[in-house]
Amino acid sequence: MDAPPIVAPVIALTAWTHLVLLWMYATRIPAVLKAGMEMDRNRPRGQQMAELPARVRWKSDNYSHLTEHPTVFYATALAVAFVGPDDTIALWLAWAYVGLRVVHTLIQAIYNDIMHRFAAFGLSAMVGIALTVRAIQALL
C-alpha cells in the first residue's frame, strides 16, 4: 500500500517523540540513582522528580509537550491524507511543523531559554493552524 506523502512527517514526529522518551530516561535514571532517591508512591505526583536537577527535568517536560499540542497535528495531517489529493503545501507545512517541534525540543532540553522556546512553539502553532486551514480547504 502506498501511503500519502503527508504520513511521513507524522511518523517522523512520533519517532522523535520516542527518541525524546529515551533521552529522558537516559538522563533521569542516572540522576535518580546518583541522588539515592527511593520512589515513594505516597508523595504527590511529580514531587520527587522536582527534586532532580533542572537539566534532567527539561527532557521530561519536553516529552510531555510532545504528547500535548502535536496530537492536533497528528489528527490534522491524517485528515489531510484522507480528504484530499496530494497537497504539496500541506506536506511542506507538515514538515515545517515537525522541524519546529524538533527545534523546540532542542531548545528546551539543552538550554531552556523560555523566549526562544516560546518562539519555536508559537511558530509551530501558526504552522499547525495553516495546516488546518489547508484541511478545511480540501473539504470545500
Q: What are the defining features of this structure?
A:
140 residues, 5 helices, mainly alpha, single chain, Four Helix Bundle (Hemerythrin (Met), subunit A)
> What's the number of extended β-strand segments?
0
Radius of gyration: 18 Å
Strand content: under 5%
Number of helices: 5
Distance between the termini: 27 Å
CATH architecture verdict? Up-down Bundle
- Indicate the low-confidence ranges by residue numbers: none
Pattern of helices and strands: HHHHH
Classify the helix fraction into a percent range: over 70%
The SS-based structural class is mainly alpha
What is the residue-averaged pLDDT? 93
CATH level 1 class label: Mainly Alpha
Write up this protein.
The chain is an all-alpha fold and 140 residues long. The chain has one domain (7-139): Membrane associated eicosanoid/glutathione metabolism-like domain (Four Helix Bundle (Hemerythrin (Met), subunit A), Up-down Bundle), CATH 1.20.120.550. It has five helices and no strands. α3 packs parallel to α5. The longest helix has 29 residues, at 7-35. The mean pLDDT is 93.
Present the secondary structure layout:
Elements: H1 7-35, H2 54-66, H3 70-83, H4 88-110, H5 114-139
Summarize the entry for a quick read.
By secondary structure, the protein is mostly helical.
